[in-house]
Amino acid sequence: MRRKITSSLLGLGIAGVTLFATSGSAQSHGYVDSPISRSQLCGLGTVQDCGQIEWESWSVEGPQGFPGRGPADGTLCSGGNGRFSELDDPRGGAWPATPVSSGENHTFTWRMVARHATTDFRYYITKDGYDPSKPLTRSDLEPQPFLTVPFGGRQPDYTVTHTGTLPQKSGKHLILGVWTVADTDNAFYACSDVQY
Description:
It is a single chain. By secondary structure, the chain is of the alpha+beta class. It has helices at residues 2-27, 38-44, and strands spanning 30-34, 61-63, 98-99, 105-112, 118-125, 147-150, 159-165, 172-181, 186-195. The N and C termini lie far apart (70 Å). Strands 2, 3, 5, 6, 8 and 9 form a six-stranded mixed beta sheet that branches. A three-stranded antiparallel beta sheet has the order 1-4-7, with no helix packed on it. The chain has a single domain (29-195), classed as Coagulation Factor XIII, Chain A, domain 1.
């Protein structure tokens, strides 16, 4: 009887570990911590009523190929993932913003939960005249990233930092970070509100 119980418990334990590992790897990736992203603000509870992203701040994954392809306009902050549509809601322009200055060297930090082979990291910023009370579209962004970090298919560490010079701007802007994965058809998207 003891053997049967022990075998049953062992089997349940293995099944549980397998299920946890499978579901964890499917939903675990990375987020931008500096300047703090909308998904991380929700994950920390700094911003309320965020829906599912509150428990999955690392999962903003969508189709790659931005800006030519990828998520549709108005869904860029959620990576086109309807489960995280709260990230696309501009909240009347009231998302908390990280203070920054024109021309400063800023260190961008990604926290990885699962490390994927990586093509590159790219950072876009909104154009002058951007309206933070409307959902983000491609036409709101400068056409070229102000910082591109090629990765050549390498796997990043669990903390990745890039330093780049912030463009000359004033007022409230939004930085869209795009982490392009090399071994899938997806990328990760992170919107960080900043105040010059």
